[in-house]
Automatic annotation (TrEMBL):
NCBIfam families: UbiG (TIGR01983). It is an enzyme of class 2 (transferase). Keywords: Methyltransferase, S-adenosyl-L-methionine, Transferase, Ubiquinone, Ubiquinone biosynthesis. Pfam families: Methyltransf_23 (PF13489). It comes from Caenibius tardaugens NBRC 16725. This is Ubiquinone biosynthesis O-methyltransferase. Pathway: Cofactor biosynthesis; ubiquinone biosynthesis. The keyword Amino-acid biosynthesis does not apply. It catalyses: a 3-demethylubiquinol + S-adenosyl-L-methionine = a ubiquinol + S-adenosyl-L-homocysteine + H(+); a 3-(all-trans-polyprenyl)benzene-1,2-diol + S-adenosyl-L-methionine = a 2-methoxy-6-(all-trans-polyprenyl)phenol + S-adenosyl-L-homocysteine + H(+). Gene3D superfamilies: Vaccinia Virus protein VP39. Belongs to the methyltransferase superfamily. UbiG/COQ3 family.
Length: 253
């Protein structure tokens, strides 16, 4: 459950993780975030795949009924890099008390407006995670975020500080492979399927690198699942980690 003591997890000496240029890039996309045919169309295709993994991870971690409608009832969730709420809203519908954090104030404004229109109560904040005085959460998610931050060890350490004992973390990230350079940057950004300038291939993280970052923050990484693309299946969970992957983490020991 949440430790809601103000400032309990803030770290005044923590490194800044937000890159202003990244926040500005995504802030410009805020108005179209919820348009499945707009600039975030790829996220709308990706979100059901991520949600399937998250739901399965929740059921396994807390031994919940896979057919239950509210497996997160009585639990708290923190979505870091929440954008305009594509993941935060489904987590709220699964029963969680959700807090969403994003670097771009424009995204938070769009997220609040959409949640209000959907009748959902979600606590949205903009700014550096460690400066917001939030407590600990049962579930912490950060989807397609770590490749955009300035200080990756500091970012992961911040996530770990906000994960309650016995909690579950879920992260996704593009893998740094020749395939991801070709498909995600060369092809997808080249034809406009992903807004140009969204990714820097050198910032992509391999599963081994992510495991080391998590271990440095006292977390143990689960087995990653690939997010692959095919003509017949579209985006889907796979054993192929070459393009993108999603993974759980828990407190080690």
């Amino acid at each position: 459950m949440t430790n809601a003591t103000p400032g309990a997890n803030s770290s005044p000496s923590a490194s800044a993780t937000i890159r202003p240029e990244e926040a500005a890039h995504f802030g410009k996309l805020a108005a179209e975030w919820w348009n499945p045919a707009g600039s975030s169309a790829m996220l709308h295709k990706l979100n059901p795949v991520r949600l399937g993994f998250v739901r399965d991870a929740i059921d396994r971690h807390w031994n919940s009924d896979p057919h239950g409608l509210k497996p997160l009832a009585g639990k708290t969730a923190l979505d870091v890099g929440c954008g305009a709420g594509l993941l935060a809203e489904p987590l709220a519908r699964l029963g969680a008390a959700v807090t969403g954090v994003d670097a771009a104030s424009e995204n938070i404004a769009a997220a609040r407006a959409h949640a209000d229109g959907s009748g959902l109560t979600i606590d949205y904040r903009d700014g550096e995670l460690d400066s917001l005085g939030l407590g600990q959460f049962d579930l912490v998610t950060a989807m397609e975020v770590i490749e955009h931050v300035a200080d990756k060890p500091a970012f992961v350490a911040g996530l770990a500080r906000h994960l309650a004992p016995g909690g579950l973390m879920v992260l996704s990230c593009p893998n740094r492979t020749p395939q991801s350079r070709l498909l995600m940057i060369g092809l997808a950004e080249g034809v406009g399927a992903i807004p140009k300038g969204t990714h820097n291939w050198d910032d992509f993280i391999t599963p081994d690198e992510l495991a080391l970052l998590l271990a440095g923050a006292g977390l143990a990484m689960g087995n990653p699942s690939g997010i692959a693309m095919s003509v017949t299946k579209g985006l889907h969970l796979s054993d192929n980690l070459a393009l993108n992957y999603i993974v759980t983490a828990t407190h080690g020991g």
